[in-house]
Automatic annotation (TrEMBL):
Keywords: Membrane, Nucleotide-binding. SUPFAM superfamilies: P-loop containing nucleoside triphosphate hydrolases. Signal peptide: none annotated. Belongs to the small GTPase superfamily. Rab family. PROSITE patterns: RAB (PS51419), RAS (PS51421), RHO (PS51420). Residues 178-193 have a biased composition (Polar residues). This is Rab2a member ras oncogene family.
């Protein structure tokens, strides 16, 4: 299938926060309550249309256990975006996001990150208020959203939101798709990929 761009995303966070469930819901529209623990990495993909561009999203779901940290760090490289996931019903998973964020930012420069408070269906067991997620995201200059893979709430919106931000970066010249480490690859389509005169000027270093 042809596409304009391929974006590589990573999904990071503590074990059990629902990273694999988010991947499965988004790529296959399924939910499995007793999902097996990820060992190393699992990869899924889906092609969507954002702002008249066909985007193939390649999602790398990484293992959250400490024993796999040294292995999964290598998968961060070459990513354009990251979903930093915690469980709203488990405070310890929220406490860990600082470390996950630090690692991601050390491994990848200019990484677009969205903070995801998953399992919003467990609101009756909530330990992390919406405002806590919003405040952390604001301080770290991240996007933020709460989701439920079980109820399919805001899963589509997560990927749409981060994809739009990356498209903006491409348009503004902050991301160069020809750079292999950018996490973005230019695809082959019959119509080609254009963002108009402004994009071409920025890419060439020209001014108005």
């Amino acid at each position: 299938m042809s596409y304009d761009f391929l974006f590589k995303f990573i999904v990071i966070g503590d074990p059990g926060v629902g990273k694999s469930s988010i991947l499965l819901r988004y790529t296959e529209d399924k939910f499995v309550s007793d999902y097996e623990t990820t060992i190393g990495v699992e990869i899924g993909s889906r092609t969507i249309n954002i702002d008249k561009k066909k985007i193939k999203i390649q999602i790398w779901d990484t293992a959250g256990q400490d024993s796999f940290r040294s292995i999964t760090r290598s998968y961060y490289r070459g990513a354009a975006g990251a979903l930093l996931v915690y469980d709203i019903a488990r405070a310890s998973s929220f406490d860990s996001i600082k470390d996950w964020l630090k690692t991601a930012q050390e491994e990848v420069k200019n990484l677009e990150i969205i903070l995801v408070g998953n399992k919003s269906d467990l609101d009756h067991r909530r330990q992390i208020a919406v405002e806590q997620g919003e405040d952390f995201a604001k301080k770290q200059e991240l996007s933020f959203i709460e989701t439920s893979a079980k109820e399919n709430k805001n899963i589509q919106e997560v990927f749409d939101k981060i994809s739009r931000r990356i498209l903006e970066k491409i348009k503004n010249g902050e991301i160069d798709p020809s750079n292999e480490s950018s996490g973005v690859k230019k695809g082959q389509t019959s119509t080609g990929v254009t963002f108009g005169d402004d994009f071409e000027k920025k890419k060439q270093g020209g001014c108005c």
